[in-house]
Amino acid sequence: MCYNTATPNDAELRRYLKELLIKDYHIENEFEERFNADGFARPFLPTVLSESQDSVKLSQWKLIPHWVKNEAEAKKYANTLNAEGETIFEKASYRNSILKRRGILWVKGFYEPHKVPGVKETENYFCYKDGGMIPIGIVYNPWTDQDTGEIKNTFSVITTKANAQFEVIHNEKKRMPLILEPKDFEQWFDARERGEVAELIKPWEGELSAHQVVRITAMRNVDTNYADIQKSIGKEWVFGEGLKDTTALL
């Protein structure tokens, strides 16, 4: 998940979590569905954090370390939208947080590019065909703006090496977001030993539905928060077979 994702509204997520985990979650803020949330805009997205595991909170995408003094510095700070799982225990931006501040970003889908030699990259939307939510592992830091006193939770999406599906589609960087299994949620939230955390930071073994969409990365200054942005442009990825033309089915 490079820098673009899609998230549910508050009512939809609450219903889904109750069905999946058989418990009610407190929704701290109402929020609308986002069909394309651009990480470079540093949006606030729905998360469940280790400090409050029964609540859904809006946290800001792009982790800001404690030494960043104010919003002006935060805007200029290095790109921390994603945190590589292989180096997360060593890098200064993450090493203090990864052992005690982890969470889950709940998304409906996300976008990844595909490179073809001599051709502009294409964009692809990944999701569950049944409409289920995808639990993405994050590391977060509660950051205080020293100019205003405002405190907000900021996070990075943790990434791993690509699995077999993502090696084919996200074929340049060969990365993927850390997708967690429900059976691992408790350990993800509560583990305090490096080994316990590290064993969960691995490529997911499942498979998502994926199809080509318009090139949203070429539309940074255009409103792309509408449902049709996720619509197939006539090509769907079939695992083991590659990209298939589905124009006749549209």
CATH superfamily (homologous) name: SOS response associated peptidase-like
CATH class: Alpha Beta
Backbone structural class: mainly beta
CATH topology: hypothetical protein yedk fold
Beta-strand content estimate: 35-45%
Low-confidence segments, given as residue ranges, are none
Counted by DSSP, the helix tally is: 5
Question: N-to-C terminal Cα separation, in Å?
Answer: 26 Å
Strand order of the largest sheet: 3-1-8-9-13-14-15
Tell me the number of strands.
15
One letter per element, helices H and strands E, the order comes to EHEEEEHEEEEEEHEHHEEE
Largest β sheet strand count, sense and barrel closure: 7 strands, antiparallel
Helix content: 10-25%
The number of distinct structural domains comes to: 1
Mean pLDDT: 94
Question: What's the structural blueprint in terms of helices and strands?
Answer:
Elements: E1 4-7, H1 10-21, E2 26-27, E3 34-38, E4 44-49, E5 52-61, H2 71-76, E6 82-84, E7 102-107, E8 109-116, E9 119-127, E10 134-144, E11 151-161, H3 164-169, E12 175-177, H4 185-190, H5 194-198, E13 209-213, E14 235-238, E15 242-245
Notes on the structure:
With 250 residues, the chain is mainly beta. It has a single domain (4-249), classed as Alpha-Beta Complex (hypothetical protein yedk fold). Helices cover 14% and strands 36% of the residues. The chain is built from five helices and 15 strands. It has helices at 10-21, 71-76, 164-169, 185-190, 194-198; strands at residues 4-7, 26-27, 34-38, 44-49, 52-61, 82-84, 102-107, 109-116, 119-127, 134-144, 151-161, 175-177, 209-213, 235-238, 242-245. Strands 3-1-8-9-13-14-15 form a seven-stranded antiparallel β-sheet, with no helix packed on it. A five-stranded mixed beta barrel has the order 4-5-11-10-7. It is globular. The two termini are 26 Å apart. The mean pLDDT is 94.
